[in-house]
Amino acid sequence: MAYIDSSVIIGQAGDVEKESGSYENIKYMKCEPKNSFFPDLSKTARTDVIFFCSLNNPTGHAASRQQLEQVVRFAQENGSIIVYDSAYAVYISDESPRSIYEIPGAEKVAIEVSSFSKIAGFTGVRLGWTVVPKELLYSNGFPVINDFNRIVCTCFNGASRIAQAGGLASLSKEAVISLIDYYKENAEILLETFKSMGLRVYGGVNAPYLWVHFPSSNSWNVFVPGSGFGPAGKEFIRVTAFGQRENILEASRRLRSFL
Amino acid sequence: MQPESDTTFSFAISTSIKLGRPSIRKIFTSQDNGNVTSYRTKVARNPTLERLQYNYLFPEISARELEHIKKYPNAKVISLGIGDTTEPLPDVVASSMANYAHSLSTRTGYRGYGAEQGSKELRKAIAETFYKDMGIKDTEVFVSDGAQCDISRLQLLFGSKMSIAVQDPIFPAYIDSSVIIGQAGDVEKESGSYKNIQYMKCEPENSFFPDLSKTGRTDVIFFCSPNNPTGHAASRQQLEQVVRFAQENGSIIVYDSAYAVYISDESPRSIYEIPGAEKVAIEVSSFSKIAGFTGVRLGWTVVPKELLYSNGFPVINDFNRIVCTCFNGASRIAQAGGLASLSKEGFKAVISLIDYYKENAEILLETFKSMGLRVYGGVNAPYLWVHFPGSNSWDVFGEILEKTHIITVPGSGFGPAGKEFIRVTAFGQRENILEASRRLRSFL
Hints:
- Chain A: Its cofactor is pyridoxal 5'-phosphate.
- Chain A: InterPro entries: Aminotransferase_I/II_large, DapL/ALD1, PyrdxlP-dep_Trfase, PyrdxlP-dep_Trfase_major, PyrdxlP-dep_Trfase_small.
- The complex is a heterodimer.
- Chain A is globular.
- Chain A folds into two domains: 31-170, Aspartate Aminotransferase, domain 2, CATH 3.40.640; 173-256, Aspartate Aminotransferase, domain 1, CATH 3.90.1150.10.
- Chain A is built from seven helices and ten strands.
- In chain A, helix 6 runs parallel beside helix 7 (245-256).
- By secondary structure, chain A is an alpha+beta fold.
- In chain A, strand 3, helix 2 (65-78) and strand 4 (81-85) form a beta-alpha-beta unit.
- By secondary structure, chain B is of the alpha/beta class.
- Chain B has a seven-stranded mixed beta sheet, sandwiched between helices. In chain B, strands 13-14-17-16 form a four-stranded antiparallel beta sheet. Chain B has a two-stranded antiparallel sheet with strand order 1-2.
- In chain B, strand 6 (187-188) and strand 7 form a beta hairpin.
- In chain B, helix 5 packs parallel to helix 11 (332-341).
- The longest helix of chain B is centred in the last third of the chain and has 27 residues, at 344-370.
- The radius of gyration of chain B is 22 Å and the shape is globular.
């Protein structure tokens, strides 16, 4: 949501098409069960910037190495800049890349954004980071990092030193990993629950989100409705795996009696 | 913002590789001579960023300080440059943050996302402490991670088509953020002024309050009082003029009151002391210079419900949207500290720190006066604005640095009207302020 809304605010997105809710100047790369939640790049026109979130919020899909190589190649061919959001990378359970920079050449085409929110439970503490490689150049050869540094110095004044102290501590201790495992176990429980109900459920393996499909329905319900994430979310519900274990178990009980 | 000499002016880029300006121009404007094989994207640089003249002023001052320390490793450099607080936080404030941070490790105390607008408690405390009897409600107070960030969020709110007026000289964030968002137009190389910005000159001749009758209409008027860098606090009568001017022109005032707590006389501490201001003004402030929170990061912006766009839409609704989309709330830990600093005990401690800096200002004021210099400010603000008629401020900055190892800020960093001035900050440990005074007296 944030990529689209901020794009609208800054003036990139153009007018909205009332029926679909899509903005005329934004290219939407559809991610659905049919394409295993990885877009068909051959059907995607060139844009200057490509926002790519993997682990994806809300679908929970983690792009494979091969898929990310495609994205990087696509960006190289089009001279585009990827903004790669890896906020949920620590939830990855398999061999999927945790950073775009695992792909050779990505340093010339990609910016990466991440956060301590879902890594260290810092949603209220407020700490994150953005990587801008020196090799990333504008069309005139000017390094993007110089301009980003200027933005950071003029429109910002640094993250709270206290939050930074906490961030440093969280990178030196094992403790945060066990919290991440706790949430991943929650996801397993919910995944099992939805599967046992015979529902088509995606995500929940590499991510703290489950993307549950209710074909031919409209997604407004108790949970976060999928249409809040864009037109392709219309028939889906996003379920978060963040929560106290007892609440996750109670939710599972109630869900099983729901259908 | 013209530095004296191209060949000696150097600035650090993000990786702290220092290049003289001529070489920067050579690297980034040269044509591809066939030997350059580095891959480039096909994304054009944002033209607004190209219009920024130099690096943001304060990192540049830091870079000059580092250079000087390298040159004179044994000199004890005293920084009266960047306006940064130096005194430790009161214990009651620091403890509140330590306790809050610790409570996050407990089952019952852990909290996740907070309201983007800030905790209800803190919003209430801010309204009650600073806007008592001015009709400002807690729901009109938006807690942030600092005024510098709020200024850019306000520019996002306004968009690229707004026209702005600023005081000249002024703290650079209003101008630089205006350039970045696309409002300011091209720069006039000689003066360093931007085509679309109205500069309201503040100088000794007009006692640092602009002649509004000579100011063209703009959509937004940035007004900082007490002023950074001149130290002038606008009187009630002057602020009534500003509000009237805004009303007549249908403009919005963005009033920066970050230094209001330093006011020693009867000058208003908030624009909302002026009747009618709630219909024309947004106010921005910060815990930085109140509570020493420059590194903790906490501030606020007031957007009254009565402030309406030309189509009747409340500005507060759009600002709330910006805050919810482009921000996620100030750190809960910083907010706990803010609340403690506004408690009875906390505020008392905070005021005594402010008094400490004000005494520093008195000492420096005396020093400059005794040197026969024309010095302004230092009474209602933690800044002194020293006049060196006929000089170039980067030269004076360099000379003071070389001869006394004291960092100041050249006035031209604050706009064309600052060309002959030096800004001196009163933040500092008393012994350094006294030592600086001694060195300065022997300087001239």
